[in-house]
Design goal:
The chain has 601 residues and is α+β, with helices and mostly antiparallel strands. It has 13 helices and 30 strands. Among the domains are: 235 residues, no CATH class; 70 residues, no CATH class. Strand 4 and strand 5 form a beta hairpin. Keywords: Chromatin regulator, DNA damage, DNA repair, Nucleus, Repeat, WD repeat.
Length: 601
């Protein structure tokens, strides 16, 4: 393992807010305070040293860019900014960069989406059909980015700082500075898989009746869990049995949903996300020994704090008082577990809070399996895309904690994930979660903002607000032997099919987008022809609107693309277009008045 900080002026010494690897090539992107998205290429030598090469700079946003994420197929890139815009980019294979430019790639804009405030995080669905964005207006927007439709969810009471899609496209999780983690499920898809004749309406928000049903189900499950907390070992065995049963059921469901016909039918279904779980509070487990990571939680939809409540439970996550700009959760590559950062754990009412991250099972979403303590509030979690074989040397450790942790996850393969706080990165192994594989700290002078794994799982890139990026490089097979494809679990095979479907979906939509772009070009030509007789000031103003030379023209260029994305923003561009075409419209109106038969007579 090698660790190094790359001494490059990534964004002109400005803070870096996110980084993400392209799953289809040796490229990655970074975003920062300079309003740009940078595309980088990399090569790795035998010694594990990383060589970074600048490829392109994507300029469209007029405020800092907080997030950028490649699509599952790798052919699209989504970026979100403080200016409230979400830009979908794609690499223009036919464009040739200018000879006097340092850029080696040209990226074009597919579409621009709009929200009302700052965009903090983005997440693609595994099939590429949906893109979720979270904002500082406490809302979550789920877009079908190329068809420009979306579902708006407004349930959080404070900034939403993180979002992550389930690789199996069943769930979506969000985290907010209101101290809650909300889990949404695709209700229409769930009903379709159980009954073919059922149907559900695609509402734009979650109704109160759906919340009540979920709260009743969760309260019943929590009461059962609390009653069974007398013995930790029994509780673990019950969890294992539930996991085994749920895994068997999941395998049966996967066998029914991995055909191409099912994927085609799923692509035609409309999205309808409804609330499934609200994670907010944890009940104290007095019977568990001190230092044990196993926890129980109690969900409450009532946010009022009372003395009785403080003696029986505590908040699971930090609220807005935590100095973290992002709370980025992550799903495992097989979709079996997910991890939420910025958590806090309290052993008893008299003990102090401890920063932690919670691990949940997709089948037991209201009950964390374990929690992983840290010295400071955690910011981001990211799983490696590679699944590894079990290591037999870990089994030789006969401590009770290791046995419990291995039995809790109950999987016959290993997954690697990284959890980053503001100053430390810890790398864990699902086979042995009692302590991390490695801990890396003091890499940067300022807060760590994001981490990302390469497609082969040998590079972990770390971004910081001090304006620099670091990487942790692993030798081949240093983390273990990758699992052979024949031994892949059914859930991972289904995720791979979704990614293949994502590439097909975006490719088809690209052709449609090219047709719309041609129509836009024809419209521009018509405008140019109609304005040939206009004054020179008008023509210069038109060329200035096309050439992006300063911040004012950037804003104008952004507004010109918006009418093709959201109709609500059309009035913002009307004054500029009418002011430029006043002479043209003045000439057209008299001609229309002269055309009647009176002139012919």
């Amino acid at each position: 393992m090698k660790c190094e900080t790359v001494m490059i002026l990534w964004h002109n010494k400005d803070p870096i807010y996110s980084t993400d690897f392209d799953p289809s090539s040796n490229k990655f992107c970074t975003t920062g305070f300079d309003n740009e998205i940078k595309i980088w290429g990399y090569t790795k030598n035998k010694d594990g040293h990383l060589s970074v090469e600048f490829l392109s700079s994507l300029v469209k946003h007029i405020k800092p860019v907080n997030i950028a994420r490649f699509s599952p197929g790798g052919n699209l890139l989504a970026s979100g900014s403080d200016d409230g815009s979400i830009v979908i980019w794609r690499l223009n294979q036919n464009a040739i960069p200018p000879s006097d430019s340092s850029m080696k790639e040209i990226w074009s804009i597919v579409t621009v989406l709009r929200v009302t405030t700052d965009v903090y995080d983005l997440s693609w669905s595994s099939d590429g059909q949906y893109l979720s964005s979270v904002s500082t207006d406490n809302s979550v927007s789920v877009w079908s980015p190329l068809s420009k439709t979306h579902q708006l969810i407004t349930e959080h009471s404070h900034y939403v700082q993180g979002v992550s899609w389930d690789p199996l496209n069943d769930f979506m999780i969000t985290q907010s500075s209101d101290g809650t983690c909300r889990i949404y499920r695709n209700e229409r898809k769930k009903k379709k898989t159980t009954t073919q004749s059922s149907s559900s309406s695609t509402s734009s928000s979650v109704t109160a009746s759906e919340k009540d049903k979920d709260s009743e189900d969760n309260s019943d499950s929590n009461s059962n869990n609390i009653n069974n907390n007398n013995n930790i070992n029994n509780n673990n065995n019950n969890n294992n049995n539930n996991n085994n049963n749920n895994n068997n059921n999941n395998n049966n469901n996967n066998n029914n949903t991995t055909t191409i016909e099912d994927f085609n039918s799923n692509s035609k279904r409309k999205l309808n996300l409804v609330i499934s779980n609200v994670l907010s509070r944890r009940s104290y487990n007095n019977s568990s020994p001190v230092g044990d990571n196993i926890v129980e939680i109690e969900q409450t939809h009532d946010e009022s704090k009372t003395k009785e409540e403080s003696l029986t439970s505590h908040r699971m996550f930090y609220d807005e008082r935590a100095s973290t700009f992002f709370r980025r959760p992550s799903w495992s590559p097989d979709g079996s577990i997910f991890i939420t950062p910025t958590g806090k754990f309290k052993e008893s009412p008299t003990s102090k809070y401890q920063s932690t991250s919670y691990i949940f099972s997709r089948h037991i979403r209201d009950k964390p399996l374990i929690h992983l303590p840290s010295n400071n509030p955690t910011v981001v979690v990211k799983f490696s895309p590679i699944i590894y074989k079990l290591r037999h040397d870990n089994i030789n450790d006969n401590t009770n904690t290791n046995k419990n942790n291995e039995n809790l996850l109950n999987i016959n393969y290993r997954m690697i994930f990284a959890i980053s706080s503001q100053d430390t990165v810890a790398i864990y192994d699902t086979q042995k979660t009692d302590r991390p594989i490695s801990i890396i700290s003091n890499l940067h002078y300022s807060t760590i903002t994001d981490v990302s794994w390469s497609s082969d799982g040998t590079i972990l890139l770390i971004a910081s607000s001090d304006g620099f990026c670091s990487y942790i490089s692993f030798a081949p097979n240093e983390l273990g032997d990758p699992l052979s494809e024949s031994d892949y679990p059914e859930s991972l095979k289904q995720c791979i099919l979704y990614k293949q479907r994502a590439l097909v979906n975006t490719t088809i939509n690209e052709q449609q987008q090219q047709q719309s772009n041609n129509e836009n070009k024809n419209n521009l030509k018509r405008k140019n022809e109609s304005n040939t007789n206009s004054e020179p000031n008008d023509s210069s103003a038109e060329t200035d609107s096309i050439v992006d030379e300063n911040e004012q023209t950037k804003k104008q260029k952004t507004d010109e693309v918006i009418p093709n994305t959201l109709p609500t923003t059309i009035p913002t561009t009307l004054p500029s277009t009418t002011s430029e075409n006043t002479t043209g419209t003045g000439d057209i109106k008299p001609k229309r008045r002269i055309q009647p038969n009176l002139i012919k007579k």
